[in-house]
């Protein structure tokens, strides 16, 4: 049935001396942009430069949850389109991204949380995204393992139920996009490190790598947690980004137990069951900036405490693997997508924090359009870097953010 | 099945039988048995079916490197039966089978392997798209091993301890024990962790000689006895180390025995030095059907006989690459097993004496031969071949002991950030560099000689002690010389796999990943080991990479001549041994703070809610409308427990400067006896806090913050004054003082009952601050505020006096109709008054100007000195911002739900709070709406969730709604 196996993203190509565009970062956003550039924008002489291997960073470390129940009207359409793209890309790439449309239950633990969620729900419904407020009893019917007793730390009042969301096999997205990009001519250079970005007369002219120099008029910086440091060290552009570890873990594989993604802001925890049967769970970021991607003892204990209050049967389940990744947090928890400012030909797409996975498809599509036409698509305009200088934060988070003392 | 009785190394007590059930039948084992050894003794050979192909799986390693013996025990799934001590009455079930492990209806899956190459999921089931939702449900059902009931409730005690120690030794084998003794003899505190229920490591089950007339197991017991004489060594057996973090923080979990007051116990150990002496496991030999029941590793067969007294088979073939394999063959022969042949991959074994012992027993010894294929199910014979595959022979057997040599257990080192590199000589991944305070000892360094292993423990123990400031450099030098005089690391077996295609040669048992799958992945362009791991799932199962951990990178490297650097083990991650969530959770640490009035308010019918870090009374009424509570405040008097307010003292010569830095107002204008209301902003000019400040003496201030900011205020002020070198002290008094908000038109009458002083409106007017003595005893600080819009007093009283004062006020207030009120009542009252709560009427992006409090900002203060002043200037006249407004509903008495949105063709804002006001007899609320919709008189359209497009209208009106002139709070 499958006796011949060809390299999915071609044989390792030789580094050319020039490309029409160079994308720094072989993660989801880089590969998605490459794919849309090559396949849909007709710009095929492009390269993705990845220091490690594709999907090394956040692309392979996230817990694969997708949803479009964000808070603001700038964000919702972008995430909605990203959500709609999973089946489309599965077909286009001829690669099963394993979208499990199980819906997301965001648990609410107080009257105030119910009100806050109502704003998200009203915003979603107004924009044509399905989302509902449901009570605790309905939650229990949907998820029998849930504990709706009143004697727990944060009793469950109800939930925001978002049927269109779910989980996607994140690694498959990496490989599928790489396959698609390579098919339309994109060169993917793994184990290649960008060491410099060269600017002349306010324009991008070339990129230095440890494998040689590449002449190019366009560079997209989309290196996840490493973007802010690269931007500053190579171009002197400071981005308002704090990099924090975010940790996640999985249990041993189980037969189906959780039929929906479940999350709780109060408990700082979320969980979903992968198609493999493992329960993947994670939570908030570490409280201090760092780049180590090391886990902490505190975190896995907190997670066990939090998750077993909501889902007590999990006390009999074992954690198996705990890892960490980087979240590049902006002050308003919304990304920075910009281009040709302050350098012509320089594009950036970063600051996604822990939303990078669920948005990558739509962002790739529009960043590709931006790079191919030099015109910023309407949908990306609110995410420009300049908003911070104007003190016009986006309202993606209602609460004050305290991950860095600088806020 | 009867047990071998005369093994001196037995760990089962055959005088103590234990019965348990499996497959609805009663089985019996002995105290000391594991569930798996008892089942094996009872004739069970197939313990489970594999994840993908439903292949039968049996005993293979006894150390939990794979999920072959994953079973359900007492309702808990994925229990590793080979490591779980048998207890009386256990209910054991097989997992992932339809039928029984012996007759599994899904067994046909094994023949479908050609349809399931590496990563086949990604290339199938999506064409046409409509089949995927159906297919994925089948995938879900097929996936997963164990099953847990949603109603399962864990019983038992889960304890936790957090010891500190000088030296933490991981591994209670010969090198670990030697290291612990060496370190302890210098006087240091030592903790030793051993995963098995007993000490001794690989000495424990061996009857061969350590030295003349001293068998290995006896030597281990000598070391154990020596440890017992050192009271500064704490030994934890049956304690698996699961994590190593920065600065030698070691986590582990201990399984309690019948004498322990816990079932499992979480340990978090902070050590100055850490010694990893975890020894070796065996590297699985890759050949066809290498995981067939009947195929097992050396130590598995050896320990079954020597530790549990069970003969693992009748006629055995050995295919090994280590002297321990020959030793095991000799022991098993002596115990009564027929040995058909011992095939040895190596050219020459290390000890000729062992080979001559084989000869003495007339056991054929085949040098340079290896198992090629296990045949028959159950195992009937094995096909052996020379290393090049040129010759072949078939031998009948029911036991195949197969192993490609040893591989070090490097998980703890890897987690401690040691750098591991492939070593050609030993074929091990050896530590190239160790972090400060981390040491390695014993077999994991490639040592084989028993005394060299102990000597390396001595070196590690002294090195660790030296790192703690004990032990002499000379003693360490002597130990190092002693080690140098012992046999060094031996050459390891360099064979990666037998000369086979590998269609059924399993590199990872848990995930059913074959050698062929790895080749397929490499052909598909996956070059890095980590990527292949993700693509083929090899090493991602419950065995924590125990089976594929070493072979995978070797196999990958073999196919990548150009990427030598890729010969790297995959990253090891905690928990190194799967650990129950119950154990990690321990005693629940999610706690709430309670005020001194907590219990009283509950007795009074308060509905308590967790709000931030506190538990507070949300309301006391029959329903959430709180009508009775609200009307009582407007007409009579009530008390609110406001203890959660942030309360701080700041004093010292530069206290005022610090206040000026963080508050937007000019804090120099505070007059004695008066309250100053002000706000704090961040650098974006966004309002983050509001509260009041009073001056209590020279350079001595007392101020309050919102409940939410109480925790972070000290850090905030310290952060924003960090470069100034100012001299001030800042004390968080939040938990020290209780706060009672006594509010309502009759509040003064009530207060005068407990305070013997003039508190008339003239003597103690609105916005005044004064300190009194209540009931002739209690010191109380009183602020005259008006958050709820009525005459009110905020009484700050030492926490220990709060209840007394509260009771006195309750008693005094009885004639005036005093009653509790909760947060929801306060919420409605303050809304009627147009007072905001930060976080309710403001978002993260809302500036001081946006909420209409721009007047609090004193622009004559030097801008550079006030946090947020620059932004306040820049945003003052910005358009299109969200502004806080009051609104009244048009044509309806029903308020929109909080969180409804304000729309036209797009979203223009949202309702922060809206209620039907009993006081005003209409529905009013506050909203954040986009400029210019904020102008008074504007009609706004409100969209509620589930409204199906039916908007409701409201009109923007001036605030406050209630008592606009403020007469009531000044009365």
Model description:
The complex is a heterodimer of chains A (407) and B (971). The longest helix of chain A is centred in the first third of the chain and has 19 residues, at 75-93. The N and C termini of chain A lie far apart (57 Å). Chain A has two domains: 21-62 and 171-240 and 332-387, FAD/NAD(P)-binding domain; 104-163 and 242-329, D-Amino Acid Oxidase, Chain A, domain 2 (2-Layer Sandwich), CATH 3.30.9. Chain A is α/β, with parallel strands linked by helices and 407 residues long. Chain A has an eight-stranded mixed beta sheet, with helices on both faces. In chain A, helix 1 (28-40) packs across helix 8 (356-373) and helix 2 (75-93) packs across helix 8. In chain A, helix 1 links the parallel strand 1 (21-24) and strand 2 (46-49). Chain A has helices at 28-40, 75-93, 111-126, 136-142, 170-183, 227-235, 297-310, 356-373; strands at 21-24, 46-49, 65-66, 104-108, 132-135, 158-162, 166-167, 187-189, 194-200, 203-209, 212-215, 219-221, 242-251, 261-264, 269-273, 279-289, 318-329, 336-339, 346-350. With 971 residues, chain B is of the alpha+beta class. Chain B folds into six domains: 13-116, Ubiquitin-like (UB roll) (Roll); 158-281 and 408-484, FAD/NAD(P)-binding domain (3-Layer(bba) Sandwich), CATH 3.50.50; 287-403, FAD/NAD(P)-binding domain (3-Layer(bba) Sandwich); 620-643 and 736-829, Gyrase A, domain 2 (2-Layer Sandwich), CATH 3.30.1360.120; 646-732, Aminomethyltransferase beta-barrel domains (Alpha-Beta Plaits), CATH 3.30.70; 879-971, Aminomethyltransferase beta-barrel domains (Elongation Factor Tu (Ef-tu), domain 3, Beta Barrel), CATH 2.40.30. Chain B is built from 24 helices and 51 strands. In chain B, the strands form 13 sheets. In chain B, strands 8, 9, 10, 13, 14, 15, 16 and 29 form an eight-stranded mixed beta sheet that branches. Chain B has a six-stranded mixed beta sheet with strand order 42-43-44-41-35-45. A six-stranded antiparallel barrel of chain B has the order 46-49-48-47-50-51. In chain B, helix 4 runs parallel beside helix 5 (216-228) and helix 10 runs antiparallel to helix 11. Chain B is elongated and about 115 Å long. Chain B starts with 12 loop residues before the first strand and ends with a helix. The interface between A and B is large, with 113 and 123 residues.
